[in-house]
Every structure is written in structure tokens, then in C-alpha cells.
Design brief:
7-stranded antiparallel β-sheet, alpha+beta, 15% helix
């Protein structure tokens, strides 16, 4: 994997002189002199979302990181009190005890960290299925002690809202708070100094999901405005489960029948027959058995043996592309998406395929 070289020219904020700055004896503040104002700590911040692109950008204006495959979270620290908030605004502090414990010992009074909760495999890669299983499935209530938090932005720090600072300045402050060698419940998402195509090639070679590119000089903006760009090695999106064909696979599931959205309606996009483990199939079958119905929510052709479901379950599916008749190629099941956190369904365009 491409590793970030040690910095030679980049320096943390407020350290632009060669002689180290030293503090002097603190004097009593003149009451006539105004105090530095503090920003109120936001209760919640809508996350900045990465815009999907087919190829990475290049040039000095961009910095690159690995794309982590987990649950987007913000960690709020307020003088020893920790709140872990999901992308959908839910308080999941109790579900991530390892992250909570690590946040309590950070050397800062108040902070809001933006990042991703992940479970790592033996190679150090984030494993979405393992995270979901640790949490007990799509609507499970289990605590995931093995989940760690990979921090990639700092939005609030010691009483100051940092969102109007440029990306590079926020990054310097984040690196001062979480060192690159940190290996506990909160870790730093490494910045990679290289050209975009080379970073993507290395990520794909190591079996990672993809990369994120961020503009150095941009502030933090909620929503999907293009300040952050994601490029995937393997395509992965959310699709509605229309039903399944019984078979000899785990959970008695032979093939899942999937649908995307097109012009406001569900459209069948083919079947998924790989990716299920005994554990994930058991979780999925439990959810599917609750929503069996008599008719498919979209036309799928003649499938007499299929078991039809109400169109409420959104599955994360990896795939290699599309056929000419708008069907998924080499699709593999990854897990169920939480409808409150990342329940978006893939939108088919008219020219897809």
C-alpha cells in the first residue's frame, strides 16, 4: 500500500518559525481587555458527503485518503462526556464501548471528530459485513467492542468551530490530537501524498474499496457539494430486495432478487447468489420472513418458485458493472443497510448499461 512519507515541508499551525515557541508566566488578564469568544458546541453536524466519480482528480490542490467501509459517525467530547452520533442523527454511544473509552482519554476538553466506525480484517482492511455482524445485523442492538473509529476530520476543537477553516488546517490540528502511530480505539486516517491515479491503483491492488480525494483549501460543508470525491475499486451500492429463490445455500437462500429505482419506480436488476455466510444468511432470513407477501413489487419475469417480499430491505451489493439489459454483473451480497443511516437505493439512469 502507498504510505504517506514523513513530512519535511508541512508544519502544524502556529509553528512557522524555526525557534520553538515558549510560553511565559501567565499574567492576570486586564478586565478591560475583551476575552477571546468561544463558539457554542453544535449538538449535531450534518456530514460532508463524497461525490462519486469514475476517476480520481490529480494535482497539488487535492489530498488523498483510503475509503473506509463502515458506519459514518461523529464523536462529540465535552469535558469527559462522550456522545457518538450516527449519520442519521441517532445516539449510538452505547454500541461502541471501545470508541467511547478511547475518546475519554483524548488530550482535549471539547472536540467533534468526523470519521468511520470499522472492523478490520487480518490484513487491516475495513470489513463492512464483520461490522454489521458485530452490531447484530441491520436493526440489531448489540455493542461492537471490536469496532474502532478512524478519524478523518476535526470539526470542533477546544471551544472553536473549525468548519470555516480550510481542509489542510483542520488536518494539521487533527494530526496534533491523534498521532499517526495511534493504534487504539481511535486512529488517524492516513493522508497519502501521491498523484490520484497511483493512489487508486495501489488501493485496488490491496483489495481496498477505493479512495477519497479532498480539496486542500476548502472549508467543511455539509452535504454532497464536490469538496470531497470518492472513487471506487469495486462498485458497491444499495438495492431493494424484491424476494428470493429458495435453494441449497445458507438459510435456504438460492438467489436474492434485486431492484433499483428508475424514474420513481422499482426496476428489477437481476439476482445475487454469492456473498452470504451462515451468519449473515441467518440474520437476513430472519428479516425476510417477517415481510413475505404474495406479489413482487416490480416485474421480474417468470419466477414461479420465488418468495416475494415487501420492498423495505436495502442490501449493500458489490458488482463489477452492468449488462446491456441493465442487469448487475458479478454481484455479491455484503449486508443489509440500516434504513436510518444509509438507506439510499441506487438510481438507474436512462443510459445505464
Amino acid at each position: 500500500m502507498v504510505k504517506r512519507p514523513s513530512k519535511s515541508s508541512s508544519k502544524p499551525l502556529l509553528r512557522e518559525v524555526e525557534t520553538p515557541l515558549k510560553g511565559s508566566r501567565r499574567r492576570r488578564r486586564n478586565p478591560e481587555q475583551p476575552a477571546l469568544p468561544f463558539d457554542p458546541m453544535p449538538d449535531r453536524i450534518e456530514p460532508c458527503l463524497a461525490l462519486l466519480k469514475p476517476a480520481p482528480p490529480n494535482g497539488h490542490d487535492w489530498i488523498f485518503e483510503i475509503k473506509w467501509d463502515g458506519y459514518r459517525l461523529s464523536v462529540h467530547l465535552d469535558h469527559g462526556t462522550v456522545r457518538i452520533i450516527t449519520r442519521g442523527g441517532h445516539d449510538w454511544t452505547h454500541r461502541f464501548p471501545t470508541i467511547q473509552a478511547a475518546a475519554k482519554v483524548l488530550p482535549v476538553g471539547t472536540a467533534i471528530l468526523d470519521g468511520e466506525a470499522v472492523v478490520l480484517d487480518a490484513m487491516g482492511r475495513s470489513d463492512f459485513s464483520a461490522l454489521q455482524q458485530a452490531l447484530g445485523g441491520r436493526i440489531g442492538k448489540r455493542s461492537a467492542e471490536e469496532a474502532i473509529f478512524v478519524a478523518f476530520d476535526l470539526l470542533y476543537f477546544d471551544g472553536h468551530d473549525l468548519r470555516n477553516l480550510e481542509q489542510e488546517s483542520r488536518r494539521h490540528l487533527l494530526e496534533d490530537l491523534i498521532p499517526a502511530e495511534a493504534d487504539g480505539g481511535i486512529r488517524l486516517s492516513q493522508e497519502i501524498e501521491c498523484d490520484g491515479p497511483a493512489v487508486l491503483a495501489a488501493a485496488c491492488e490491496h483489495g481496498l474499496e477505493g479512495i477519497i480525494a479532498k480539496r486542500r483549501a476548502e472549508p467543511y460543508r455539509s452535504g454532497r457539494g464536490g469538496e470531497w470525491i470518492k472513487v471506487k475499486c469495486i462498485q458497491s451500492d444499495g438495492f431493494i430486495i424484491l424476494g428470493f429463490e429458495p435453494g441449497s445455500g445458507y438459510g435456504g437462500i438460492g438467489r436474492l432478487l434485486m431492484a433499483a429505482m428508475k424514474e420513481g419506480k422499482l426496476q428489477y436488476v437481476g439476482g445475487v447468489g454469492t456473498g452470504l455466510s451462515s451468519r449473515s444468511a441467518a440474520i437476513l432470513r430472519t428479516e425476510m420472513d417477517k415481510i413475505v407477501t404474495t406479489k413482487p413489487a416490480a416485474s421480474t419475469g417468470r419466477k414461479r418458485e420465488a418468495v416475494w417480499l415487501k420492498p423495505v430491505l436495502v442490501a449493500e451489493v458489490e458488482y463489477r458493472g452492468w449488462t446491456g439489459d441493465q442487469k448487475l454483473r458479478h454481484a455479491s451480497y455484503k449486508g443489509l443497510r440500516d434504513p436510518d443511516e444509509n438507506g439510499e437505493v441506487f438510481q438507474l439512469r436512462g443510459d445505464r448499461g
